[in-house]
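Q: Convert this sequence to structure tokens.
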Amino acid sequence: MHSRAQLYIQDGATLHTDAQATLVVNGDVRNKGVLDNTGTTSVSGNVDNEGNSKIVNPGKASINVAGNISNQSTIENDGSIDLMGNFDNQNTCTSRGHIFLSGKDQTFYHKNTSISNLSVNGGGSKKMTSDVTIEKKLELNEGYISPSSGTKFLMKDGSETSDGNAYSFVDGMLYWEGAKTHYYPIGKNDIFTPVEFQDIEGDNLTLGMEVINPADVEMTESKLTVNMVKSRYFKTDVAAGTFTQGYLALPYFGSDNLDPGMKIGVAQAAEAAGPYLMLKRNADKNSRISDTKLDYVVSDKPATQKYFTVANYLNADMSMLYVPNALSHFAPDSNDVAIRVYGDVFTNDDFLFTVSNQWGNLIFKTTSREEMARHGWDGTNKRTGRREMIGQYYFSLKATTLDGEKYETAGSVWIID
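A:
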């Protein structure tokens, strides 16, 4: 081990460190020449890379800095840099190795260059004040990545990210490059809300995702959504290419006041305020969110819009649907004197029930679900007001189920008196 109070490398000078030793600097490093670090260099102060200088940190080598790094020239990092303070890159920094952000409440300016591997440690907020691109892996252990407004935090196609946790996530918009399945370890206001977009379809796509806690947006439900989570919504951003669709997995919490006795699904909207239309839930689809031990739901229908949340939804139990096939004016049971639609599985909208005779002539028509549930068709021709004769007739039913599906059926009914 070699120890110095401070280190100053003059213009034109080169310092080679021993690959088998540790250089400890109990102060600042001021470099105007070349620092060729082949072993381990630990700095208790700041590192200033000035003028036409260069810091070279090859594979297996490491630089540990308790203070800040300011780069006015060139840094070539193929090993690891473990930083407790801020990073200010004003020129060129190539990082094919690993950068560890191990301090608390750090500012990271990387001048729109890429990083192969980035690890977040130490807690606090890691404020990203320039675009950052992760080539290989993002590891979230402790601390929040906070991209500044107008910056882009991007995961390259083929890279990977750790699951994230309640103490470490991306607090802002996170982008993924490529159209496949992508996991977004995002959150807001100390609440970890990871998202997974599955089977994404699109061309030359870069798709971002962020969770928003709306302060000035009144979110509205559609007719089929109830108990919608209004304390947050998820927002997508297409930074490049075109987005067609994907299946979305979202988390939910006990504090969301969802009804556990009802089905829980993903809802989407074209605008932040809604209305949010139900995409339902596919109980057979799993998500990587399960690794975080959070409850989640995967949409049954593909997500195509820009805004998303979680809600209960009305469920149509189609096994309860029943349309009798005969009626009799003299039936002892009052339920048998008319053809009714039983089951209460349809909405009041888009309902149509018709009856035609043997020659195809329309003899009965109603758009009232309530009429067919309460009174039904008793064999009377609505146009003439007279009761039809004994024989076979044909009905048609078109409606929308309580969970938003279009439904059609047809069959025959008999007047038997």
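The mean pLDDT is 95.
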